[in-house]
Design brief:
The complex is a heterodimer of chains A (about 325) and B (about 230).
Chain A: H1 7-25, H2 29-54, H3 63-80, H4 84-108, H5 113-133, E1 143-144, H6 159-182, H7 184-194, H8 196-201, H9 206-232, E2 234-235, H10 237-241, H11 243-256, H12 263-281, H13 288-303, H14 307-313
Antiparallel strand pairs in A: 1-2
Chain B: E1 2-11, E2 14-24, E3 29-33, H1 40-47, E4 55-60, E5 63-64, H2 70-76, E6 78-81, H3 93-99, H4 109-119, H5 121-124, H6 136-148, E7 154-158, H7 166-181, E8 185-190, H8 193-199, E9 202-207, E10 210-216, H9 217-221, H10 224-231
Parallel strand pairs in B: 3-8, 3-9, 6-7, 7-8
Antiparallel strand pairs in B: 1-2, 1-4, 4-5, 9-10
Helix pairs in contact in B: 3-6
Classes of the chains: A mainly alpha (about 325), B alpha/beta (about 230).
Chain lengths: ~325, ~230
C-alpha cells in the first residue's frame, strides 16, 4: 500500500506493526488502553492528513469535524434511540457535510494559509460554545450513552475485540488514504498544495477539489469522533470540540510525515508513547506531557520537515537517489 | 479561432482593459506587446477564465468563453503557461508533465510525453528529478511542456523569456517556433519586442488597456512609433 523508498522506512513500519501486534501479547491493560486511545487519534490524524498533508490546507480546527461526528451519533442514539451503526454512518455523513460547508465557504472567498487555519479554528470554537449552550446537545453536562455491550451497539466488553475493531478501522482508513494518494484526486490535491495557480492553469477545478478534500477529511474526522464516543460513552463540548483535539489532529501527521500513508499513524503512536512515558515518569506534574509535545513538535519542524517517514526515507541502500546530473 | 471583442476587465473597481478586440487564427503566432502594467497579463487571465470580464465577448472556435471556469476552458483546448514558471517544485519532472494531461488528452498521454521530450531533450534527462532543482530555463521549458500535455490548439505564453540568460532566451524563441511548427497557435506575451516580432506573424501593441497598434509583425518591426516607444531609437 505504499511505495517504500528505503530500508529506513521499512524498519520504521515494521517496528510499528510489531508494536501494534505485540499489544496482543503483552497482557497489560495499561498498554492496551493507551494504544486504543492512540488508534482513535490516529484516525483523526489521517483525517487531517487529507487536507493538511496532501492538499496543504492547514486546518487548526479539526475538532469541528471530530465533535460533529461524535455529537451527531450521540444525539441520534440518546434522544432518538437510533441504532449505533446507523448513528455512526450519520455521524460520518454530518461531519463530511460540515467539512464541505466550511470548505465551500472559506474557499469561495479565496481564504488561504494561516487565514484558513484561523477560519477553521473559529468554527471549532463556535461549535464548542454552541454545544455547551443548547439543550439538544446536553448543554454543559454533555451526553451519556447507555451502557449496552454488544456488537449491534458498537460497544465491546472485551478489550481485545475492541482493539482489533479499532485496528481494522485504522487499516481501512489507511487503505483509503493510499487510494487517495495514488488516485487522480490525490494528484490534484498535491498539485493544489504545490502551486495552486499552476494547478488552475492546467485545468484543475481547484475549488471543487479543495471542498471535496474537506468533505473526505470530515468523513474521517467524524469517524474518529464516533469511535471516541463508542469507547467512552460520554462526550461534552470540550471533549468533542476542544482545541486540544484540533492540536492532536495535526501534530501526529506533522511529526510522522504529512502527505504519507504511514506518517500520521507513526507520528500519533510515537507521540502518545512519549506522552504516556512522560506521564508515568513525572506523575506529579500534570500537563507536562503537553510541554513535551511542544518540544517534540519544534524539533520535528526544525530537524525533520518531512516527518519520521521523510527522515527514515534517507536511510538505507535503496534510498531514492536524485538524478546524477543534478 | 479565438475572437475577442469589446472586452473590459479589471480588479475590483479598477478597470485595466478598456475594451479590446483581438483575433487569433489557427496555427499563427500572435505577439502581445506592451510595457509593465498596461493589461497584458490581465488579458491572458481573462482568456483563461481566471478573471471574468465586465463587458465584451470572447469565443473560441465559436464557443463563448465568458462565464466558463478555467478548467472548462482548458478542456476546450486553450493552455495557459502563466508568468513566472509556476511549476510544482517538489514533484518530479515526469509528475509535473503528467499533471498537464489530466483535463484533456489523457488518452494520448504517452505519445505527448514523447513528443514533449523530443522538443525539450533537456527534460528527458531530468525526468525523475524534483522540478525545483531545475535551472530557470529548464523550469520554463517544463512549464511550457506541461501546458503542451493537454494538446492545446492555443497556447498562451506569458513572458516565457523573463529572467532567462541571453542564450536561454535565444533557445526559448527557437522552441516557440518549433512548437508553432507543429500547428499550435501561440499568443506570446513579451517584453522582448524585437525577438517576439521576429517569430510572430502578427502583433498587437497595448497601452493603458487599449490596443494602439496592430498588424503584421514585419510592418511593426520597421515602425518608427513602436521603435520610439519601446526601444528609444
Amino acid at each position: 500500500m505504499m511505495k517504500l523508498n528505503s530500508t529506513g522506512q521499512l524498519v520504521l513500519i515494521l517496528v510499528a506493526v510489531a508494536y501494534l501486534l505485540g499489544v496482543y501479547f503483552i497482557s497489560s491493560p495499561v498498554w492496551m488502553g493507551f494504544t486504543i486511545n492512540a488508534l482513535i487519534v490516529a484516525v483523526l490524524a489521517l483525517s487531517w492528513n487529507v487536507t493538511g498533508g496532501f492538499g496543504g490546507l492547514s486546518s487548526f480546527g479539526h475538532a469541528v469535524l471530530y465533535g460533529t461526528g461524535a455529537y451527531t451519533s450521540a444525539i441520534l442514539q440518546v434522544t432518538y434511540g437510533v441504532n449505533a451503526w446507523v448513528a455512526l454512518v450519520a455521524g460520518i455523513a454530518m461531519a463530511a457535510a460540515v467539512g464541505g460547508f466550511i470548505g465551500a465557504l472559506a474557499f469561495r472567498y479565496g481564504v488561504k494559509g494561516s487565514y484558513f487555519a484561523l477560519v477553521t479554528l473559529a468554527f471549532a470554537e463556535v461549535f464548542r460554545i454552541c454545544a455547551a449552550s443548547f439543550d439538544f446537545t446536553g448543554g454543559g453536562s454533555g451526553l451519556q450513552l447507555k451502557l449496552a455491550p454488544g456488537i449491534s451497539n458498537i460497544q465491546f466488553a472485551d478489550r481485545t475485540v475492541l482493539y482489533t475493531f479499532l485496528l481494522a478501522i485504522v487499516v481501512l482508513v489507511m487503505l483509503l488514504t493510499a487510494w487517495i494518494k495514488y488516485s487522480r484526486f490525490g494528484a490534484y490535491l498535491v498539485a493544489v498544495r504545490e502551486n495552486e495557480d499552476a494547478a488552475r492553469a492546467l485545468g484543475i477545478d481547484t475549488y471543487r477539489i479543495k471542498v471535496l478534500a474537506m468533505a473526505v477529511s470530515g468523513a474521517f474526522g467524524g469517524l474518529a469522533g464516533v469511535l471516541y464516543l463508542q469507547l467512552w460513552l460520554f462526550i461534552d463540548s470540550s471533549i468533542a470540540y476542544g482545541s486540544s483535539v484540533s492540536i492532536e489532529a495535526l501534530i501526529g501527521p506533522i511529526i510522522g510525515g504529512a502527505g504519507t500513508v504511514w506518517g500520521p499513524v507513526l507520528g500519533t503512536l510515537g507521540l502518545h508513547l512519549i506522552g504516556e512515558g512522560a506521564k508515568t515518569l513525572l506523575s506529579n506534574a500534570p500537563g507536562l506531557n503537553f510541554v513535551l509535545y511542544a518540544v517534540v513538535l519544534i524539533c520535528a519542524l526544525r530537524f525533520m520537515p518531512n516527518g519520521l517517514v521523510g527522515l527514515a526515507g534517507r536511510i538505507g541502500p535503496f534510498a531514492k537517489k536524485e538524478s546524477k546530473d543534478a | 479561432m479565438l475572437e475577442i471583442s469589446g472586452v473590459r476587465a479589471g480588479y475590483g473597481s479598477m478597470t485595466v482593459l478598456q475594451g479590446v478586440d483581438m483575433s487569433i487564427k489557427a496555427g499563427e503566432i500572435v505577439a502581445l506587446l506592451g510595457s509593465n502594467g498596461v493589461g497584458k497579463t490581465t488579458l491572458n487571465n481573462v482568456i483563461s477564465g481566471f478573471i471574468r470580464p465586465n463587458a465584451g465577448t470572447l469565443t473560441f472556435k465559436g464557443v463563448p468563453l465568458t462565464g466558463k471556469k478555467p478548467a472548462d476552458i482548458v478542456a476546450l483546448g486553450i493552455a495557459h503557461v502563466p508568468e513566472g514558471r509556476k511549476i510544482f517544485p517538489n514533484l518530479s519532472v515526469a509528475e509535473n508533465l503528467s499533471l498537464g494531461a489530466f483535463r484533456r488528452a489523457g488518452a494520448n498521454r504517452k505519445q505527448n510525453f514523447e513528443r514533449i521530450c523530443a522538443i525539450f531533450p533537456k527534460l528527458r534527462q531530468r525526468l525523475n528529478q524534483s522540478a525545483g532543482t531545475l535551472s530557470g530555463g529548464e523550469q520554463q521549458m517544463l512549464a511550457i511542456g506541461r501546458g503542451l500535455m493537454s494538446e492545446p490548439e492555443l497556447l498562451i505564453l506569458d513572458e516565457p523569456s523573463l529572467g532567462l540568460s541571453p542564450i536561454m532566451v535565444e533557445e526559448m524563441f527557437n522552441l516557440i517556433t518549433k512548437i508553432n511548427a507543429e500547428g499550435v497557435a501561440i499568443l506570446l506575451v513579451e517584453q522582448n519586442v524585437m525577438q517576439s516580432l521576429a517569430v510572430a506573424g502578427r502583433a498587437y501593441v497595448i497601452e493603458q488597456g487599449r490596443f494602439v497598434m496592430e498588424g503584421a509583425a514585419a510592418d511593426l518591426i520597421s515602425d518608427k512609433q513602436l521603435r520610439q516607444a519601446y526601444l528609444g531609437m
